[in-house]
Amino acid sequence: MFRRYREKQHSQKCCRPGFFSLRIMPDSKKKKLDSFILEGAAPFQDKKIKIDDTTLRDGEQTAGVVFANQEKVRIAKLLDEIGVDQIEVGIPAMGGDEKKTIKYIAGLDLNASILAWNRAVIDDIKHSVDCGVNAVAISMSASDIHIEHKLKKSRTWVLDQIKESVEFAKHHDFYVSVNAEDASRADLDFLVRFALSAREYGADRIRFCDTVGILDPFDTFNVISFLRSRVDLEIEMHTHNDFGMATANALAGIKAGAIYVNTTVNGLGERAGNAALEEVAMALKYISKLDLGLHTERFRELSEYVAGASSRTIPVWKPIVGANVFAHESGIHADGVIKNPLNYEVFSPEEVGLERQLVIGKHSGGKSIEMKFKEFGIELAPKDSREVLRLARKLAVELKRGLFDKELMNIFKDYQDHTKESGKGSSGV
Ligand SMILES: [Zn+2]
């Protein structure tokens, strides 16, 4: 609720992180693991990192994606049930169905704060007032490229617009995020002036937008550290995936002191998309050691729903929620997972709503085939196991894919028939 965003600002000076803390793990902690890990620092354990999900705004801006009204409502409810802190629901100034749906979602009394996107224009914000949301994002370009070539205005004009729109929004008691569009290409001194203006007129945070996805995690860490050292205002990361670094950059920003992360389910969003909710949440938990307390076991369900609503399939190799993330085929890996899943998995599939699968295919080994047939209630003798494996690999190469359970059973039946006919007999079944 709105008051959730009134939390007092903690001093962050005491807990500025180093970039990586390279630490030799003591034996007591990792038993006899004679190794080291790059352990993510946990810099803000006293300050909760918050997810502001923009599937319904930036996600829907993906070229060719349109959510039906009821799909927007369902996605908002799912995000709320999963526990995100804020939901960016759309753009009220578009009017029509968009405005009606935003108003409807704002009236659902969800736990999450409901944020509407606006240009730095008073008329836009009036539409947000009509919708009954409790938070607004006010977007304004921060880079000279945008100011000169998109807006065709001046830096002074930009600061004037921030003053006018933020004052108007605060007058209506909104939680205000000032979105610094194209911040990653902005002049740093001007970006500081931009953020100081936002703060002076009452903004609650600044959204740092890597609008064209041009940063790497090292530069992201540096620029967010710089901004934090100059302006006492909470920072939100909005990162794009043009070079495949959206999630990494979001984490780098958090490591440098950002508190909010703007995400989308499945990484939907303009061009190559945004930082994916499921990736950010799980990477924060397992790499940065920051557990956001989300119901991650519903990630696959959410991912499937949004995939259907956006008519975009989930690639099987998609990090965190892809169907192959817990599928093991190669003999060495499958054997390792059978012995202990930790050999090749960082967390359990149940944690994100998936199931572990042993895939029988060209690279499978004897242990996998034995394990697979145990699932069918069949104990294979070593000789049979070797032969069934040989036949399974052969078929997988012919078909150029892994095998379905039914195909494996057919191989086994054919093998049994063949051994009976040739009078050799099959043992152990
Ligand atoms: Zn964006």
Note the main attributes of this structure.
429 residues; TIM Barrel; disordered C terminus; binds zinc ion; 16 helices; single chain; two-stranded antiparallel ribbon; 8-stranded parallel beta barrel; alpha/beta; 14% strand; 12 strands
What would you say about this model in short?
This protein has 429 residues and is an alpha/beta fold. It has helices at 27-30, 55-59, 69-82, 96-106, 122-131, 144-151, 155-171, 188-200, 217-230, 246-255, 277-286, 299-309, 331-339, 366-375, 382-399, 405-421; strands at residues 21-24, 36-39, 50-53, 86-90, 113-119, 135-141, 175-181, 205-210, 234-239, 260-263, 327-328, 357-358. It is built from 16 helices and twelve strands.
What share of the residues does DSSP label as strand, in percent? 5-15%
Number of strands: 12
CATH class of the largest domain reads: Alpha Beta
| Helix-residue proportion | 40-55%
Strand order of the largest sheet: 3-4-5-6-7-8-9-10
Low-confidence stretches: 1-27, 29-35, 425-429
CATH architecture of the largest domain: Alpha-Beta Barrel
Tally of individual domains: 2
Biggest sheet record: 8 strands, parallel, barrel
Question: What is the alpha-carbon Rg in Å?
Answer: 26 Å
Average pLDDT reading: 89
Compute the separation of the termini in Å. 62 Å
Based on secondary structure, the structural category is alpha/beta
Report the CATH superfamily of the largest domain.
Aldolase class I
The ligands found in this model are: zinc ion
> Helix tally?
16
Order of H and E elements: EHEEHHEHEHEHHEHEHEHEHHEHEHHH
The global form is elongated
